[in-house]
Amino acid sequence: MNMIAKLNRQVKTGNGMKANHSSQLDPHYRSQPQQFLQRARTYAGRRLRMETRRLLGIPEGNASLSTLSGTRCLASPLCAILIGAITLCVQGQEARVRLSGNISPLVAKTQQLGRLPADQRIRFSVTLPVRNQSQLDALLKGLYTPGDPRFGHYLKKGEFANLFGASPADYEAVSDFVRAQGLEVVGTYSNRLFLEVAGAADKVENAFGVHMMNCRATNGRLFHAPDDEPQLPVSVAQKISGILGLDDAVQLHPNFVPAPSQRGAANPANLTGSGPNGGLAPSDIKNAYNLNGFQGTGAGQTIALVEFDGYKENDITSYENNLPYWVLPTVSLPKKVLLGSATGIPPGTPEDRPYQSEVTLDIELAIALAPGAQILVYEAPTDGSVNVYGRIADDDIAQQVSTSWGVFEGSQSQTTLNSENAAFMQMAAQGQSMYAASGDEGDHDLDANNNLQFGVHDPASQPYVTGVGGTTLSSTPECVWNDGIGHASGGGISTKWTIPDYQSSTVSPGSGGSSTMRNVPDVALNADYQNSPYASYFGAWARNGPGWFLNGGTSCAAPLWAAYTALVNERAPMLWPGHVAVGFVNPNLYRLNSIQSDYSASFNDIQCGNNGSKYSAVAGYDNC
Question: Residue by residue, what is the 3-state secondary structure of 446-467?
Fold first, then answer.
């Protein structure tokens, strides 16, 4: 009988992973633990791990199986014991674990082309877990529940780190480990949840037990990725929540749709906007949403825009001073906050035009409604979303935040989604309002390889983000935006997040929404690029030369919601004594839904149209 059969007979495994404690291991294998570990099967469960210790005569007090001198663990180890989501390995005198959920699911579907050059520099992030998660959950509930003593009393700058960030000792220990591997810490965060790291590919391989590979995606795009999940010493692994950026398979994309004239076709002849080429001017936006009587310009407020490219300042000044159409009052030029390899300078290549134009469009629409607000443009590489969300939360300067970029949530690794969520929870705890475009593909979304997938958009599907869908102003009443040829308001049901408390009782019968999973979007605004487009000034569109263009998409709606929130927050101390900001708006938005008189006075319920074959607009909440 071979050793494996003997072990199978001695340790009975079933649903309960039961072990026979009267069994004894053959003396031959007791004297040769290395052979035992190298030939043993992979098993799961704490009780089996304890039984293995007992059979090998390892004292229970030992922290790991690493006391087996001389044993080694390969990148794909036979000597592994599966423990939940990690794999415990014995390597020399130190146990190591292989993490899971850090690599995009897209990597498994790609072709490996060979190793990266040893000296190629890789930039990535180490994330640390939120401390006292249950207490944070309770705080967030109290902050947004009227009548609770904590209602509206947001955390001040620095308090989040003290209550919920990793401990200073853990943060320093992780930093020390990184430096000991010959890697460089290039960015730190006072919330102690994120650590930016860079180094040569060979250093990365040695640090994390992987091979860094060149890869080709199914659409031909080239990127790099490790050949396995990263591996760490147990003492380090227990202090972190993930390692992100070892692959750059996921590149976020913008969510705006240019008018037909920018794609070689004619614009509709019936455009009624008062701006250039019949596009909507700032006054048209205010008229459409009854904001003309609203006092204020957003003065004293800061709007953070999440961007992944640069822009030209003269485009912004051209939009601000647009005689004879309009001149916006009290406008300050945006300020840039650069992360990672971002330069703030648009490359100017034809392929880059949509990215530059997204940045410009976001800025121009934000100042259209809130010209008195300070705009902060946080720019990062297109695979650096976690860092930019973390930095905005860490800085805690902007009371309202908007992103018009994203990707199909199924393209993201689970660790990426969790790390984003940590940043968004911090924003909510600090009273920051976070808005995200819900996408322009209706009940589908584009994955990182530009393939349509049935599903929803990250980060709009995040539970602490307000997802912003699209409508059209071309009809009376206002309806769901759907051009009938592939573009429509993004919406649907998340497969990653369970339904939040604020949404649990609001999904309308007949909408196709879920009673168990997060529904998207939360709000909407005009996004129709054909019939009610926005006028914007771009110098980046070399095909037609600098000038005025028409655009739509949910990326127009998101910054407008952020700008509207700036108008509200400007007056918050007067309207809401003792409070400074509305914060995360979803709980209050959905609470209004249960008070019919307040809901009807505050919102226009979209009850016509659809965003595809699955979801249609109905009375009350729906997924489009």
Answer: ECCCCCEEECCEECCCCCCCEE
What's the rounded Cα separation, in Å, for the pair 379 and 396?
Answer: 16
DSSP-assigned beta bridge partners for residue 374: 302
- Contact of 306 with 563, CB cutoff 8 Å: no
d(CA 56, CA 508): 60
* Of 427 and 33, more confident: 427
DSSP annotation of 248:
-
> How far is it, in rounded angstroms, from Cα 556 to Cα 559?
6
**Cis status, amide bond into 258, omega within 30 of 0:** no
- CA pair distance 603, 600, nearest whole angstrom: 6
At residue 51, the 3 state secondary structure works out as helix
DSSP state at residue 407: E
Distance CA 320, CA 311 (A): 15
Element (H, E) at 436: strand 433-437
> Is residue 67 scored above 50 in pLDDT?
no
463 CA to centre of own chain: 11
Cα(403)–Cα(417) distance, integer angstroms = 16
Q: How much is the pTM?
A: 0.85
| DSSP state letter for 167 | P
Q: Would you state the structure tokens that stand for residue 354, as one six-digit string?
A: 């949509």
Tokens of 423: 């940043």
Closest C-alpha among 191, 196, 193 to residue 178: 196
| Dihedrals phi, psi of 37, to nearest 5 degrees | -70, -40
Say which range, 10-14, 108-112, 134-138, 580-584, has the weakest mean pLDDT: 10-14
Tokens of 77: 């180890």
Nearest Cα to 47, choosing from 13, 75, 76? Answer: 13
Could you tell me how many residues make up the chain? Answer: 624
Measured CA to CA, the distance from residue 606 to residue 624 in angstroms comes to 9
Q: Are 386 and 313 spatial neighbours (Cβ–Cβ below 8 Å)?
A: no
* Neighbour count for residue 595 (Cβ, 10 Å): 11
Residue 179's nearest CA partner among 211, 207, 210, 205 is: 207
Three-state SS at 213: strand
State the Cα angle at 531 between 259 and 269, rounded to 5°: 85
Cα–Cα distance measured from residue 341 to residue 357, given in angstroms and rounded to the nearest whole number: 20
55: pLDDT confidence band, cut at 50, 70 and 90? very low
Q: What one-character DSSP code corresponds to residue 280?
A: B
Q: How far apart are CA 491 and CA 513, in angstroms?
A: 10
List the Cα angle 301/306/307 in 5-degree steps: 130
pLDDT over 70 (residue 229): yes
Q: What are phi and psi of 429, to 5 degrees?
A: -65, -25
Contact 614, 442 (CB under 8 A): no
CA-based torsion, 80, 82, 83, 86: positive or negative: positive
What 3-state DSSP class applies to 44? Answer: strand
8-state DSSP, 22: T
How many CA atoms lie within 13 Å of 47's alpha carbon, on the beta-carbon side?
Answer: 11
